[in-house]
Amino acid sequence: VKRKVFEAQKLFMHLRFEWLRTMDSPRANTIMVECIPYTYRSDKVLKDYFEDMFPGDQVQEASCIKDTTVLHELVEELHDARLQKQVAEKQLETTSERPQVSLSWCGKREDAINHYTQRVQYLEKEVQNE
Fold this sequence. Notes:
Elements: H1 2-21, H2 25-28, H3 43-53, H4 69-95, E1 100-102, E2 109-111, H5 112-129
Antiparallel strand pairs: 1-2
């Protein structure tokens, strides 16, 4: 059984190398690496790491791609909070009364400018951390 497996693997490797040789360069020479440690999550540091592993100009490029779904949502929230703050400031300017905001249907009302200022500061930190 082992002999048959090794023979099949030898044939497979031959076929795989032939297949890779017929492919376009970027596709044939590209690998995807997941779960990269945080300290290696920059293009330069990652490329340096692989160049150490494969010396002699074997590494052409290293690019880090990040899922920005959470970041996108945070930026949208930040944009909304800034807009709400501007609206509250404009309302103060036109009515000379500090606008109030309620955070729930039955919740107590609080100063809208202070609320949105704190919300903007919080979201700016979250965006920076993400």
